[in-house]
Design a protein that fits this description.
The protein is mainly alpha-helical and about 375 residues long. Helices cover about 75% and strands about 5% of the residues. It is found in: Cell outer membrane.
């Protein structure tokens, strides 16, 4: 899990750096667009002079008897021309202001990405220290992280997985061995309640002692003394026979009942643990399938967002789209890439969890 967390953070760092490069290119495009001269803006707002002059003589010829009312017309043409040039100048100023604001907004996005990159670097450093601690290494030991982060190929059947869990899971094996120990103890307690007969030999080492004679010793005493002197220094071998009958049988019966209850407890614990592992397997399988679907979804969305981003950048260059749409699509692209890395890390973590549930037997019992 710690390794997949490091890979996920590394992929997020790569995605943020790639998106920063995209924003840098977009900033260059916005600067070029802002710096380039505006062509054709004045002519688009100016009034054609030839059309106005052709209509003026007609009006003047029809009203010659009214004292030359056609004289003010040239002033009107001049006024319209000044207004159109002022409008063009205002449009040029608004376009320049909009271009500068686009550049500043892109720089704001770049600053935010820079902060995210620094935060990810700090988090990766902390996770590396934790990973080195698991490996019993120094915190600053180098860890090589892969550039690409792909999901682990994994195929399994739920029924076969459950069979392998019941056969290989170390927790179930521990509970099973515990039940066998209680069963053996119950048999021992039962045999301890029976009468016990012991047969054996007792061997005694006897050191040779110096004989002592007393002047007042009688003849029978002398005979016994001679006999002891003849056995002096000889080791003694004595056959032994012992019989023990348990009087307080209720003690052993209570021990047998205790062992029976503990054996039953072990069986119930085994069944409960097996059901818990089965439920955990189904839950992990659901999370695995969900992560697999998310990976496919985010991959498709990332491809579509990348295509949309390329198109909308071209529209931004040609002036058909504004920067808001470009930044929105760029954020969507980054979001899909980060979600894809999260889903891949979740998928690989679920695969590791299933391997942990199934476990492995590398050494078969002799």
């Amino acid at each position: 899990t710690q390794w997949f967390t490091l890979c996920r953070l590394q992929q997020k760092l790569i995605n943020n750096r790639e998106n920063r490069e995209l924003l840098t290119r977009l900033e260059d495009l916005a600067i070029r667009k802002f710096s380039s001269p505006v062509n054709g803006s004045g002519s688009s707002y100016s009034v054609p002079t030839s059309t106005t002059q052709s209509s003026t003589p007609n009006m003047g010829s029809s009203d010659m008897s009214m004292g030359g009312s056609a004289n003010p017309q040239p002033a009107s043409v001049t006024s319209d021309s000044n207004m159109s040039s002022m409008g063009a100048t205002g449009d040029n100023m608004s376009g320049a202001s909009s271009g500068m604001s686009d550049v500043l907004r892109i720089r704001l996005e770049i600053a935010e990405l820079d902060n995210d990159i620094e935060s990810l670097l700090s988090e990766i450093k902390a996770e590396k220290a934790g990973f080195n601690a698991l490996l019993n290494r120094s915190a600053d030991s180098e860890i090589s992280l892969p550039y690409s982060f792909e999901q682990i190929p994994f195929l399994f059947d739920t029924a076969s997985a459950m069979a392998r869990i019941a056969d290989q899971n170390p927790m179930l094996e521990m509970i099973n061995e515990e039940g066998l120990a209680y069963k053996a103890k119950a048999q021992m307690d039962k045999k301890m309640s029976y009468p016990m007969v012991g047969i054996g030999l007792q061997y005694t080492l006897i050191n040779k002692s110096k004989p002592t004679a007393s002047p007042a010793m009688t003849e029978p005493d002398m005979d016994s003394n001679e006999m002891s002197n003849s056995m002096n220094g000889k080791d003694m071998i004595m056959p032994m026979l012992s019989v023990s009958i348990p009087i307080y049988r209720s003690k052993y019966k209570a021990q047998q009942r205790e062992s029976s209850f503990r054996q039953q407890e072990s069986q119930e614990k085994y069944i409960n643990t097996l059901h818990t592992l089965e439920a955990e397997l189904y839950k992990t399988t659901h999370l695995l399938d969900d992560a697999s679907r998310k990976i496919a979804l985010y991959k498709k969305q990332s491809e579509l967002a990348q295509t949309t981003y390329n198109l909308i950048v071209q529209e931004f260059i040609s002036g058909k789209s504004d920067l808001t749409n470009v930044i929105q699509v760029q954020r969507q692209l980054l979001d899909y890439q980060l979600k894809s890395a999260e889903a891949t890390a979740d998928y690989n973590t679920m695969v590791a969890s299933i391997h942990k549930l199934i476990s492995f037997k590398d050494i078969e019992p002799q």
